[in-house]
Amino acid sequence: MTSLQDFRSSFKGQITTEGDAEYDITRWAKNAARKAKYVVYPVNAEDVSKAILFAKANCLEIAICGGGHSPSGASSTEGGLVIDLGKKMDGVRIDVEKKLAYVQGGAVWGSVDDASMKHGLVAVGGVVSHTGVGGLTTGGGYGWLSGEHGLAIDNLVSATVVVASGEILTASDTENPDLFWGIRGGGSNFGPVTEFVFKLHEQRMEIYVTELVFPNDRVSQVLDEIVAWGKSQTPKEALHLVFTVPPGGHPCIIVLGMYNGPLEEGEERFKRFVALGPIHNKSGNMPYPQINKAEKHAAVRGQNRLFRGTFVPTFDKELLSRIEPARQKMVVDHPSTVNSAIILECYNPEKVASVPVDATAHAGRHGNRHLSLVLNWNDDGLTSQMRQVSKDAMSNIVLKDTGAYGNLSDADVGSGAERSIELFGKNYPRLASLKKKYDPENIFNKWFAIRPA
């Protein structure tokens, strides 16, 4: 299929170019927008296949967009073709009897939470409700419930994948199991996933959530309690430690904690932090879906953003003590970054680490916690410098690189094969062989690209 006319006549969805009312290249991160030649909105897997074949025939770079959350621009393309699943392929269907969720590739996690919780069921998903299901899942998928149920990929039953040849394949333990292995951590390297089937878990509606804010002069005490809490953390509880400056506010540390159980038990588990005397305390029961709407720094679309992350050893106070000085230095050197945040995500690691590292493509099963810099800046003229700024800031905290979680390491996307090899570790050779089988021309190369063997 080489001609645009043939493509249009056979495509059931919508094909747009610049100037069309429906043409949309905006992204969650302002700096991730690229001027595509075509943005297509498929309605089914057959449309996706046709878009891939058209792009290949016309030598157009392909980008896959679900939620559009990738600050690196991995879901965008300059002059190429965007397959945007988010406009017309965002449905969620729940099979209550089998406890399965059928989720289209363009859905966001908030839709999954809302649809499943009506039945007292939940999928393991992301911590920001408007994050796309596709990108987060194929990259691994940590969430508030990972301590109990593992990663999103550990709860994936099957997926429909459109590979580079245009073939529409089912990937599961029994059908194309090699592809199923690859998409569970290998990102978009093997093609768009048009439908995910997730195992669901019974879930209470009300969970305990605490949001505590401390001034910067309480850093040492908060870190002491973080270290102590971590020694007895149960699978039912998780915590985000956020170093930031709220808009119009002062530098602070935020403890956002969750306990998947009754109010009294949650209060008991987090009372050590309340005893420190926070300047803001918002604690109590909350409907589970609401916690994925609590990360206020992630709420607004259209700001300049970039992620840089690394795994860190479990609760190393010396390392944690370097976070706030590094953030302050970055802001002094680059005042435009003042509202950036550095976040330590603390999920109980035992469930994730219990899965062998070679069971899926995702390599981050060592039990370390993830530290990420969510870089925000309001001066567009600084955009070209921000990858280096993020690297400098993180190097002032972490003295030795211990690997990263691809979904929160956008600053390294496109930095070359060496970084991809580091990301996938011992799984890289097998991924390279799969790449040769399913995408030998490397047309899906916008994330951490894998070179065909």
From TrEMBL:
Transmembrane segments: none
PROSITE patterns, per database record: FAD_PCMH (PS51387)
Swiss-Prot/TrEMBL keywords: FAD, Flavoprotein, Oxidoreductase
Matches recorded under InterPro entries: BBE, FAD-bd_PCMH, FAD-bd_PCMH-like_sf, FAD-bd_PCMH_sub1, FAD-bd_PCMH_sub2, FAD-linked_Oxidoreductase, Oxid_FAD_bind_N
Cofactor requirement: FAD
Entry keyword Flavoprotein: yes
FAD-binding PCMH-type domain residues: 31-203
GO molecular function: FAD binding; oxidoreductase activity
PANTHER family, alphabetized: BINDING OXIDOREDUCTASE, PUTATIVE (AFU_ORTHOLOGUE AFUA_1G17690)-RELATED, FAD-BINDING PCMH-TYPE DOMAIN-CONTAINING PROTEIN
Family that this chain belongs to: Belongs to the oxygen-dependent FAD-linked oxidoreductase family.
Protein name as it appears in the record: FAD-binding PCMH-type domain-containing protein
Organism for this UniProt entry: Botryobasidium botryosum (strain FD-172 SS1)
